Amino acid sequence: MLRDVSLVPLSRQHQHALALCVRIERALQKNLVDLEAWRLEVEHQYEQEIGFHFAAEENVLFPVARRFPQLVSLVEELSDEHIRLRGYFSRAKERGLDRAELGAFARLLSSHIRKEERQLFEAMQTLVKAEELQKIAAALEQQLAVEERVCRLPKSSLY
Asked: Which of 28, 60, 78, 97 pairs as cysteine with 139 (C-beta 3.0–4.6 A)?
């Protein structure tokens, strides 16, 4: 199913996170793991995008999805995965994420994203009316605007 425009910003961020997972998996397979570099990258990804992404899902998308009985258990499962993933991000920030945890993190994040894309987003596109999807888009835009302000580099007055 083609992704509804209201969910495209989240799907785009999913692509970024999946790319991180693929790179981690390849590094692990080739035994080329600089744990400190990966810890820093995982921490950076959370601070620059994923943390805002989780908040947008939890504050905008999940409350709408919970109104549909057939999605409640899925949303609970995804919420639990957010908690588990935040634990990995915290371990990375504390420089405690080891090689095994790095692999487990990449597998969990990848499966989590695929679950959201293939199950939650698909179902919401079917169940939620177009007008409400537009409201979701506006709310996500507002929620994710924080990310854009945080990630934007300041203009230098030297030029």
From this structure: 60
Q: List, for the chain, all residue ranges whose pLDDT scores fall below the cut of 50.
A: 151-159
CB 90 within 8 A of CB 51: no
Domain interval for residue 115: 5-147
Q: pLDDT by residue (tens digit) across 74-118?
A: 999 999 999 999 999 999 999 999 999 999 999 999 999 999 999
> Is 118 inside any structural domain?
yes
Residue 152 lies in a domain: no
What single-letter amino acid sits at 62? F
Tell me how far apart the alpha carbons of residues 140 and 10 are, in angstroms, rounded to a whole number: 8
Let me know if 6 is exposed, middle or buried by CB neighbors in 10 A (0-12, 13-18, 19+): buried
Q: How many domains does the chain have?
A: 1
- Burial grade of 31 (CB within 10 A; 0-12, 13-18, 19 or more): exposed
In a domain, 127, yes or no: yes
How many angstroms separate the Cα of 99 from the Cα of each of 10, 15, 25, 105, 137? 28, 23, 11, 10, 38
Predicted model pTM: 0.89
As a whole number of angstroms, the distance between CA 113 and CA 22 comes to: 13
| Other Cβ atoms within 10 Å of 80 Cβ, number | 11
